[in-house]
């Protein structure tokens, strides 16, 4: 019984801590058409508290056989980055198509991954309004 009570308390504490995290402020939402066959979208967020990473860019690009997502957190420099590739079982527009069959993630672990993600970050960053980005680079 004590183990169950401790487990419930742990779940409650983790859920409460997650729920208490302030939502970031959406600064800009853009459509991205020139980078993939099916288009995509990008979102620029600013943290509500200065103690958190100042800003985040989320990008999703869609294709017939999958999608790729990037998340970058940054202030005056890139702090974290991750790219995740999702492969579909068949083209999304076919019957029973578009189910994710595999994923692969890339982070800043190695020099090669870091170089590619930094290049991706700069490529996407220029798509956003410079005045919105200026809010991120103050810190």
Describe the SSE topology.
Elements: H1 2-20, E1 25-32, E2 40-46, E3 55-63, E4 66-74, E5 78-88, E6 100-107, H2 111-125, H3 130-136
Antiparallel strand pairs: 1-2, 2-3, 3-4, 4-5, 5-6
Question: Please, could you describe this protein's structure?
Answer:
The structure is a single chain. Mean pLDDT is about 80; it is low at about 1-20. The chain has three helices and six strands. It has one domain. It has helices at about 1-20, 110-125, 130-135; strands spanning about 25-30, 40-45, 55-65, 65-75, 80-90, 100-105. With about 140 residues, it is of the alpha+beta class. The protein is globular, with a radius of gyration of 18 Å. The protein is about 30% helix and about 35% strand. The chain has a six-stranded antiparallel sheet with strand order 1-2-3-4-5-6, with helices on one face.
Taking pLDDT < 50 over at least 5 consecutive residues as the criterion, the unreliable ranges are 1-19
The percentage helix is 25-40%
Number of DSSP E strands: 6
Q: How would you characterize the largest beta sheet? A: 6 strands, antiparallel
- The DSSP helix count reads 3
The geometry reads as globular
Whole-number count of domains: 1
What value does the Rg take, in angstroms? 18 Å
Short structural description:
Helices cover 29% and strands 37% of the residues.
């Amino acid at each position: 019984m004590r183990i169950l009570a401790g487990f419930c308390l742990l779940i409650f504490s983790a859920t409460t801590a997650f729920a208490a995290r302030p939502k970031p402020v959406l600064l800009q939402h853009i459509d991205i058409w020139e980078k993939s066959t099916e288009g995509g979208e990008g979102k620029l967020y600013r943290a509500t508290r200065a103690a958190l990473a100042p800003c985040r860019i989320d990008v999703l690009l869609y294709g017939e056989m999958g999608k790729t997502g990037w998340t970058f957190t940054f202030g005056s420099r890139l702090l974290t980055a991750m790219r995740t590739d999702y492969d579909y079982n068949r083209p999304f527009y076919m019957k029973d198509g578009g189910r994710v069959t595999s994923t692969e993630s890339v982070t800043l672990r190695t020099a090669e991954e870091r170089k590619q993600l930094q290049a991706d970050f700069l490529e996407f960053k220029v798509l956003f309004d410079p005045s919105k980005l200026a809010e991120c680079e103050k810190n």
